[in-house]
Amino acid sequence: MLNLSNKLGLNNSKNPQSAAGFENLYSLDFDGVDDYVTIPNNAAYTPTAVSGWSISYWCKVPSANKKLIGKYQNPNYEWYLQSAKTTGYQSIQFHSGNNQGLWQKLAANIDIADDNWHHVINTFDSSNQPSSIISYIDGIKYSAALGNATWTSSGTWTGVTNTAAPLDFGAFSQTSFTDCNLDEVSIFDSVLSDATALAMYNSGTPTDLTGETNLQGWWRNGDTAGTSVYPTIEDYSSNSNDGTMTNMDSGDIVTVVP
């Protein structure tokens, strides 16, 4: 569950607001032409076999076949998120051993490409079986076991390998770009529980993650200072691994939020 220190108003140096005053005021608007945010490579963003891994984000996607977030840049293959080509289903794909042909993927059977805000969490326990990946879309759990998601794989799994690939928002291998809004992206080096996933959805409103355990990165995509932060996208986790808006301007920090 969310750390109770949030309720006591504890915060970090970059976020001056207490939990009681927490607001989500901005998101990033990607044009689908050449906009993206890039964050330097960090092994913390690569799923490990030790403690598992999770990612949370809010997205507003106008159509199917959009690559949203990934640590994937040819010839470095780790993972990426997308709305599927024909269905718009949210999916996440992991690659094994830096090999493009070795992968496993979960596609949640819900169309997120409807130009509405959705909250997505994907968890990964680092194994290679239908139960290895679980998704939560708007507080609802999706898995192969529940029959509302489809798991597929190719090749013999060994594990995701950290590569030189940066973490990118709004682009795939920095060559294919996505028109969408992204907000409140966070990465954990643990498998989030059902209760934590539901608390993070927070009935459709982003919530304060300050003080959360196992938080490796938290990019609020414009908050709290708005256009004055351009071109830096601050990492509100203790790692302070900031991102850079690339081929974007300050006007791409917008007040369109979940």
Structural description of this entry:
This protein has a single domain, classed as Jelly Rolls, CATH 2.60.120. β5 and β6 form a beta hairpin. 46% of the residues are buried. The N terminus is likely disordered. It contains 1 helix and 19 strands. It is mainly beta and 258 residues long. The radius of gyration is 17 Å and the shape is globular. The strands form 3 sheets. It has a 9-stranded antiparallel sheet with strand order 11-7-6-5-4-12-2-18-17, with no helix packed on it. Helices cover 3% and strands 39% of the residues.
Characterize the biggest β-sheet.
9 strands, antiparallel
The portion of residues forming beta strands comes to 35-45%
N-to-C order of helices and strands: EEEEEEEEEEEEEEEHEEEE
Q: What is the domain total for the residues?
A: 1
In the CATH scheme, what's the topology name?
Answer: Jelly Rolls
Classify the secondary structure makeup into a structural class: mainly beta
Mean pLDDT: 90
Calculate Rg over CA atoms. Answer: 17 Å
Question: Which CATH class is shown?
Answer: Mainly Beta
* Shape annotation: globular
- What's the helix count? 1
The total beta strand count reads 19
The assembly state of the depicted protein chains is: single chain
Q: Record the strand order, biggest sheet.
A: 11-7-6-5-4-12-2-18-17
Name of the CATH architecture:
Sandwich
